[in-house]
Amino acid sequence: MITKAAIARMTEVDVSVNGEFVAGYKADGVIVATPTGSTAYSLAAGGPVLEPTVEAFLITPISPHALTNRPLVVRDTAEIKLSVRTTSDEVFLTIDGQVGMNVVEGDEVVCRKDTHRVRLLRFPGRTFFDVLRTKLKWGER
């Protein structure tokens, strides 16, 4: 996630996918997430829920200035580049909710899938949708 530090200030971030310009976001920040990482934060910012087996990245603007800026889902083979354009305010890069680091105008953050796979623990008898219904308090049948 790239986000601004100052309250009531927007940051400007250009996003490209596989070298193709997607959009210049004026927003509180931009989240790049996998189906199993940072998904809750993306969801809170208006992003979709992805089933964990979907091979994709989410790109979600946080409170974008333009109402037409919507979350985007791209293949997990894509290379996503975030280019910081903000000049006057502090901007931070935060990875997986850890301590943020400053980024400045002209810095680029490249997101791509790693070659190493992570094994996740699954509890027998509880499906992804069971957990989703419970956590989001969706109605029972």
CATH topology: Tumour Suppressor Smad4
* Rg: 16 Å
Q: What is the CATH superfamily?
A: Probable inorganic polyphosphate/atp-NAD kinase, domain 2
User: Given the C-alpha coordinates, what overall shape results?
Assistant: globular
Helix and strand run: EEEEHEEEEEEH
Number of domains: 1
Main pleated sheet: 6 strands, antiparallel
| Uncertain regions spanning at least 5 consecutive residues | none
User: In percent, how helical is the residue content?
Assistant: under 10%
Structural class computed from helices and strand pairing: mainly beta
| Strand percentage | 25-35%
Number of helices: 2
Q: What's the end-to-end separation, in Å?
A: 36 Å
